[in-house]
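User: Teach me something about this protein's shape.
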Amino acid sequence: MEKPEVVFENDDLIVVNKPSGLVTTNENRIGGESVENWLRSERGINLKRGGLVHRLDKGTSGLLVAAKNEHKLDELQKLWKDRKVTKKYLALVSGKFPYEAKVDMPIGRDSFKFDRFAVKESGKYAKTDFKLIKIITIGGKDYSLVEADLKTGRTHQIRVHLKHLRWPIVGDKMYGGEMILGRPFLHSYFLEFGKIKIEIGLAKDLMEFMEQDEKI
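Assistant: First, the predicted structure itself:
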């Protein structure tokens, strides 16, 4: 299992690049690898959830923020709660995506499968803005790299909103994506909060997939 990569650190917080396949927090699990356990053992952060302020799904790679002390944890949690954080992801979908799309639809638990979510009237407010970045061709088929600007932070939000638009993420088996990749093509690549702004490139496996582009 790959370990988190530190991309920014100061006296109060740390930002890591989480690899796909690694869970963020322990939740009700006992033992096993997680970003939370890594923060405790490797960085000595003994706050709740290892100081993590937000989460990424197990299959999603990219940026995560953790506080190093209670004061900073309170401050960051307030920024996230007040939606004063810019969070952008890159996702790949099959076909040619429209130039942009704005989805303002509530999300709740799926009525038929507990660990899955869906757009539903009784759900919580959720908003995502999507923008086409580029179209690539692999095996004679078109795929669209899309930026998702997360305005809220619901569980599986990007995956659910793209599924609702009938553009499920490549590799996302749970939401009907084309299974030509071993995990969802979803990567948290940009974060901005307070005076901090961080941008990283795609994960290695996703970049290698993109490099199959026949247009290059």
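Now, about its shape. The first helix runs from residue 35 to 43. The radius of gyration is 17 Å. If you'd like, I can walk through any region in more detail.
User: That's plenty for now, thanks!
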